[in-house]
TrEMBL record:
This is Thiosulfate dehydrogenase. One of its GO terms (molecular function) is thiosulfate dehydrogenase activity. Keywords: Heme, Iron, Metal-binding, Oxidoreductase, Signal. It comes from Oceanithermus desulfurans. The lineage of its organism: Bacteria, Thermotogati, Deinococcota, Deinococci, Thermales. Its EC number is 1.8.2.2. Residues 1-20 form the signal peptide. The keyword Zinc-finger does not apply. Residues 183-262 form the Cytochrome c domain. The keyword ATP-binding does not apply. It is an enzyme of class 1 (oxidoreductase).
Length: 300
């Protein structure tokens, strides 16, 4: 009897925890623990051609003839989705991502498709313009990302437009530090100079093929990366390139430093396709302007 009460109590505590966390436990299906390898071969025929086109766009977004006019900076999708999303890094991989769509997006306050999610990265991370929904490049990227989920179970995400391997997102340890006010951009400058400047430049403008991390040629103020919590969650698992090892505190501090520099501000309406070419933009996102620098947070 007592045992039954105890397990009921445990269930109630679990349920409360879930409600407090603002969502349902997800993913609910059994995904392999490690990020699986990408499929061994491309699909046959026209579909395979679209998948390969999508991959080429993800790798060369700012120079590819089908997308270059829609990109407003020097980045490619693969600048953040390392190895074109084929890698095993959490917070960068596209493996498993397609299984979670259509998903609820708190930012858009709407249920969005995978294609919508891709086009939103064009407006923010790429500081560009939404491609028309259903256009060849848009379908090609969706085909590529969907192919990378081959064989994994469908498991739509009711909380966030994020794939199975990018959860929990953002990283709980990072959220805790930032919420506690443990953010030191001056220390972040030291981390940056020691561990980042060799590739991204002391002035943040990138060196050779290494991309800029602030200024006009980088992501805009509306991008996930411009948010210290999200940026630090990404950096923790992905940078320095090939050797991600920063402590939680160093990741927070360095992204506070990076995001304390100027970059393009974000006004949603500047990033929509011209009227009549957009298709439907399924969103209830507020029309506010987000200004850089995004750190320190502006006082209301
Ligand atoms: C400046 C970095 C950056 C660039 C460039 C970028 N993304 Fe992202 N992308 C992110 C971050 C960070 C997230 C997750 C966090 C969020 O929701 O803000 C994300 C999330 C996504 C997701 C949701 C799935 C998941 O689990 O992460 C998709 C799909 C996606 N990006 C596609 C693209 C495509 C396609 C491009 C190129 C057109 C692109 N992204 C360019 C940073 C970037
Ligand atoms: C060895 C070189 C190298 C080092 C060191 C390095 N990065 Fe990167 N970083 C890259 C490359 C290359 C990319 C883009 C990945 C690609 O295109 O394959 C990138 C991408 C990024 C991006 C997303 C794209 C952009 O330009 O905004 C951010 C943010 C970033 N790095 C931050 C950092 C931070 C912070 C550090 C230090 C903790 C760091 N990097 C250290 C090479 C490096």
């Amino acid at each position: 009897m007592r045992k039954a009460y105890l397990s009921l109590l445990a269930l109630a505590v679990l349920a409360l925890g879930v409600v407090a966390a603002g969502g349902f436990p997800w993913p609910s299906q059994n995904f392999p623990k490690e990020v699986p390898n990408p499929p061994a071969s491309y699909p046959p025929g026209e579909l395979g051609e679209m998948v390969k086109l999508g991959e080429a766009i993800v790798m060369n977004t700012n120079t590819h003839p089908l997308t270059k006019d829609y990109v407003g900076n020097d980045l490619q999708c693969k600048s953040c989705h390392l190895q074109g999303g084929k890698g095993k890094n959490r917070y960068a991989t596209f493996v498993g991502v397609a299984t979670s769509y259509p998903a609820y997006s708190p930012r858009e306050k709407a249920v969005v498709s995978l294609e919508d999610r891709i086009l939103n990265c064009f407006m923010r991370s790429m500081n560009g313009t939404r491609l028309p929904v259903g256009s060849k490049a848009s379908i090609a990227m969706a085909a590529y990302i969907t192919w990378l989920s081959t064989g994994l179970p469908v498991d739509q995400n009711p909380n966030k437009p994020i794939g199975a391997y990018n959860t929990p997102w953002p990283d709980p340890a990072i959220v805790k530090l930032v919420k506690a006010g443990s953010v030191d951009a001056d220390h972040g400058k030291q981390v940056y100079e020691a561990q980042c400047a060799a590739c991204h430049g002391p002035d943040g403008q990138g060196v050779g093929a290494f991309p800029p991390v602030w200024g006009d040629r980088s992501y805009n103020a509306g991008a996930g990366m411009a948010n210290v919590i999200k940026g630090a969650s990404w950096v923790k698992y992905n940078m320095p390139l090939g050797n991600a090892h920063l402590s939680d505190q160093d990741a927070v501090d360095v992204m506070a430093y990076v995001n304390s520099h100027p970059r393009p501000s974000f006004k949603l309406t500047d990033h929509l396709a011209p009227a009549g070419q957009a298709g439907v933009y399924n969103s209830n996102v507020p029309q506010q302007i987000i200004e850089a620098p995004t750190w320190p947070p502006k006082k209301k």
